[in-house]
Amino acid sequence: MRAWRRALRAAGTLRWAAAHPWAARAVHCGQRERPQGRGAELPAGPDLRHFLRGTAAPTPAGETEPRQGSTSGLGKVYLETYGCQMNVNDTEIAWAILQKSGYTRTKEAEEADVILLVTCSVREKAEQAIWNRLQHLKALKARRHQACLPLRIGILGCMAERLKEEILHREKLVDIVAGPDAYRDLPRLLAVAESGQQAANVLLSLDETYADILPVQTSAGGKTAFVSIMRGCDNMCSYCIVPFTRGRERSRPIASILQEVKILSDQGVKEVTLLGQNVNSFRDMSEVQFQSAAAPVLSRGFSTVYKAKPGGLRFAHLLDQVSRIDPEMRIRFTSPHPKDFPDEATELSVILCPEHTSQVLQLIQERHNICKQLHLPAQSGSTRVLEAMRRGYTREAYLELVQHVRSTIPGVSLSSDFIAGFCGETEEDHQQTVSLLREVRYNVGFLFAYSMRQKTRAYHRLQDDVPADVKQRRLEELITVFREEAARANEAMVGQTQLVLVEGPSKRSASELCGRNDGNIKVIFPDADTEDAGGCKAVVRAQPGDYVLVKVTSASSQTLKGVLLCRTTLSRSAACH
Description:
Layout: H1 2-10, H2 15-19, E1 25-27, H3 48-52, E2 76-81, H4 85-101, E3 104-105, E4 114-119, H5 124-146, E5 152-157, H6 158-162, H7 164-169, E6 176-178, H8 186-194, E7 198-201, E8 224-228, E9 230-231, H9 242-246, E10 250-251, H10 254-266, E11 271-275, E12 283-284, E13 313-314, H11 315-323, E14 330-334, H12 347-352, H13 360-366, E15 373-375, H14 383-389, H15 395-408, E16 413-420, H16 427-440, E17 444-449, H17 457-461, H18 468-491, E18 497-505, E19 512-517, E20 522-526, E21 529-532, E22 539-541, E23 547-555, E24 559-568, H19 570-576
Parallel strand pairs: 2-3, 2-4, 4-5, 5-6, 6-7, 8-11, 11-14, 15-16, 16-17, 20-24, 21-24
Antiparallel strand pairs: 1-7, 9-10, 12-13, 18-19, 18-23, 19-20, 21-22, 23-24
């Protein structure tokens, strides 16, 4: 028995789970595991080979490891992503772990041995999409079973965390369930599933950030990438499920983030988005000398439901360091909370960099490679509804912040989130949200009808009393007003020259290219020969990853169109403007 356990540890499969065996349960025959008496017969589990074969043997000198896509390994994995950018990043983390364990990847579900769905739980519609997808996969799994080619299906992410029992028991279709903090356990869970059992690990962690795992970019050769800097959320807005599916806030060490961004720069990535549920409350506690630093102040007129946390390196420092890595790499971040844009320079920023005490807004204004674009989630234009949502600000405080942002960063592009039909929302509340959309005039908006989620404060304390048809009508009105104002905001750019990062061919026309400007607005322009703005003045063809100047000729609520002027660089364009 001792030799068996030593072999398991050598395979790297016990680690944390060995200390907490209750955290990762195996479910036999679709039933929850029950305590067994000493004489009770235990279900057969995976044997030693299931664990050892995931351990890479040393590669003999002069030989190379099997290339990706070869027939060796544990099987082919098909990954499907739903929801936000955090789930895109989670997909890359999960794949990095499975690839290291010996799995290969396929883009075809029909040829996969394992199908993993990375899921979202923010709204009921997102979960329903997964249930519908599982019904399609049910037929595929039945065909594979008849052909004696077993197919394992897994649910990962937020929906796994929220609905573990229901997922495992409904029709016995799903083999593994893994929450957002359990991706390291995927090889073990899949080994358990291969033996015919269901397996689950949905334990939330107070410190898991996957800082030591370099995500494998899901789009090979892509010029944009997401880098997760923190996980979880402490804000506890009354409508939001995120704190219950992703846990409490914890931040990656800055050193690991800088290393990942540097690798992406070396790979030719031209735009990085720093990701987190609340990025500007970033707080790296890994360096002892900064653990006693004072707690940061909040934006004027904003509050939190939790006590401000002292210590650590903050988001302004991270943003400063990331922007210095590559002057030709654009930096974005999402999603911030409006409360974390204070005016004052903190004592810590003076200690770190006495000649540069600027905060986040000043950094955006000063650095040519930090995009002049901010996401400021408002959620509602009614102070009464904002209080019910526990957002920590009033309509007036939010508008004051918008004015401050626009005075600090001239020409900034703003985006926001809005919820239609929250608990107790009246027609007057709704009209205040309409007026906020008109007053601020956002460039980009994400608008949704309210969907009550179990476990949230709203579920326990409030009534979902706005009828579905009223929610839908209000949502459609908000969308209409947003589009009208976004069209006006974008029309103001007609005649201007925009710096655009080329992403590739337009989806609607092979003769046009598509990219995004500094404000993250889509720009369409002809795929034609153009001059290079460098000293050679050579005639070139724009390629994905190139920066080009485009003169805007027309605009809609979502897109700019223009004519191509020349190819340039980020630094050269900044010097000319």
